[in-house]
Amino acid sequence: MKNLVCLSLLILAFLFSCSKDDSSVLPKAVNNALYFPPINTEVWETKPLVDLEWNTSALQPLLDYLENKNTKSFMILHEGRIVVEQYFGNHTVTSPWYWASAGKTLTTAISGIAQKEGLININNKVSDYLGTGWTSATLEKENLITCKNLLSMNSGLDDGLGDSVSPINLKYIADAGTRWAYHNVYVKMQDVVSQTSNQSWSDYFNTKLRNKIGMTGAWIDSNDFSVYWSNTRSMARFGLLIYANGTWESTSIIPENFLNEATNTSQNINQSYGYLWWLNGKSSYHLPASQLEFNGELVPNAPSDMYAALGKNDQKIYIVPSKKLVVIRMGNAADNINFALSSFDNDLWEKINALID
Predict the structure, then answer these.
(1) ∠ at Cα 77 (72, 79), nearest 5°?
(2) Range with lowest mean pLDDT among 3-12, 55-64, 174-183, 255-264
(3) Nearest 5°: phi and psi at 244?
(4) CATH classification (class only), 52-356
(5) Domain map of the chain by residue range?
(6) SUPFAM superfamilies recorded for this chain (predicted)?
(7) Phi, psi dihedrals of residue 189, rounded to the nearest 5°
(8) Of 7, 109, 219, 354, which has the maximum CB count within 10 A?
(9) Residue 333 — very low, low, confident or very high, per pLDDT cuts 50/70/90?
């Protein structure tokens, strides 16, 4: 009994000593917490490289490489704080640039929000929302195509007829779910959301996503579809939202279970593709404009848990949960014009690894 009393007194003394010196514990917990920049200002906390014990001597070679590869802007966030932010040439913190197909993931996010609000169910067929005749396929074949097929790039529609998503360009080539092909038809999800919300795509997007996390930017019409333009920090804000499992501070914006689906393999053909997100760490992948299957990881030099929004001419959002990183690259094509993935991804990650390892 005496020993038990002594032990109890020791525990109480320990707890008291910890509570008496809160200043030595709480600030560290706060500093290590995930940070979200305020939504009405461009003030953004930074974190020095030395605090992360990264290889500071590798920073300048990385920046030199980026500049030589036609980069306009580059950012690295660690737990939400800016560790690296660099602009090249005349590009500045306020300069807008196009997301290209990296912006496909904005459509994914909005689809998740619309489903949370009960406006849509991605397992339903597209014609439930747009009516029949939105393709030139037969009614039987058109009714096989679900919203999930649009998000997964396995609609079965011909991907060789150009960017237009008018019915004449949306021709049947295979049953939905049996063929993966990188296709602009995903933008019909924007029509689905607009139809079910009784709002324009831009208005719904701005209200439900952009304004809630402090993004700037706008959808700019390009041929038969819109492309998102913003500054680099707005792209970083979106990347941070996804890294935080769809939550901004304490507010859930995109359902976490939906994002889990979106950032895992969505179909059984291209292992490295979710809902418009590219996935690393899989054993094989397909590429745009090809029906070939390639063995190996998408970006071998990148962490296996990395997933990415990839856009034409090397617009990039890389998210790496294991490293607590969001990485952004905007600019012209690093080498040759490309749809999404390029050799630049792997070469860039070699340089990033030299910095963070």
Answers:
(1) 170
(2) 3-12
(3) -85, 20
(4) alpha beta
(5) 52-356
(6) beta-lactamase/transpeptidase-like
(7) -65, -30
(8) 109
(9) very high
